[in-house]
Design brief:
Radius of gyration: 19 Å
Largest sheet: 8 strands, antiparallel, barrel
Order of helices and strands: HEHEEHHEEHEEHHE
Strand order of the largest sheet: 1-3-2-8-5-7-6-4
Distance between the termini: 26 Å
CATH class of the largest domain: Alpha Beta
Strand content: 25-35%
Length: 239
């Protein structure tokens, strides 16, 4: 796990000239009998060592294949900032290695995501405490097709007043996009009667039958997809 997670620790405090659109996201899984100790150690580490440009936001994963785990996000950053990562203090490293990692299990996961402002309906740092993340992995050679599909869907999100942030996976596994629906009004936004069905909204914008065509194009471009619900944990995050 250490080789995947220590990259979170080596991001410098001072930014450079590039626009900060890069988000670092890692998944952690507490040992079954150590969840309380893990949360305490993670909160202590976050609040002592991760402030300013290296601020951490910690989320609990409520559903999906990683349910019961935690997501730690750092950023936004830039490739220039990441390129300048340097040595950190022994105290910092030891706290992570001795007090946090021993309370985790599994290999862990880490990835870089590049915020796509032109595909999103919300600003990068306009956060919400409850979110739905949809992960879409492209079939070989189809990543740009997914971008086109998201571009069309953006109009539907705008019509429904949905706050959606879109990210492209950056050099982190298979080519993929994630959409992060920020539930500004909480989980009630997920109710079937909160908004008109997406197919109805899509057809209203693009014409009758257009949603069926969108779904066909989607099935031709997307290799796999899954969604998950997460909630923000301010007590575990940087202050």
């Amino acid at each position: 796990m250490k080789k995947y997670l220590l990259m979170l620790l080596f991001i410098p405090v001072i930014g450079m000239s590039q626009t900060k659109t890069i988000l670092t996201a890692s998944r952690l899984f507490a040992k079954n009998d150590k969840s309380m100790e893990f949360e305490k150690a993670l909160a202590t580490h976050s609040q002592k060592y991760h402030t300013g440009d290296v601020k951490w936001r910690v989320w609990s994963v409520e559903s999906g294949p990683d349910a019961g785990g935690y997501m730690v996000t750092e950023g936004p950053s830039s490739w220039s900032v990441l390129d300048g990562r340097g040595e950190i203090s022994a105290e910092h490293t030891n706290d992570w290695s001795k007090n946090v990692l021993p309370l985790t299990q599994g290999q862990g996961q880490s990835a870089y995501y590049d915020f796509q402002a032109d595909l999103s309906t919300v600003q990068l740092t306009d956060y919400a405490d409850k979110i739905v993340i949809s992960h879409m992995t492209a079939k070989p050679g189809k990543i740009n097709y997914i971008k086109d599909l998201i571009q069309k869907q953006k109009k539907v999100w705008e019509a429904g007043n949905e706050s959606v942030a879109v990210y492209l996976a950056a050099y982190s596994g298979e080519p993929s996009y994630i959409t992060v629906t920020r539930l500004k009004n909480g989980f009630k936004e997920l109710a079937s009667d909160y908004r008109k069905p997406i197919a109805e909204r899509y057809n209203a914008i693009f014409g009758a039958g257009s949603w069926d065509n969108w779904m066909k194009d989607y099935s031709d471009a997307v290799q796999s997809r899954f969604s998950e619900v997460l909630t923000y944990k301010p007590g575990l995050s940087s202050k």
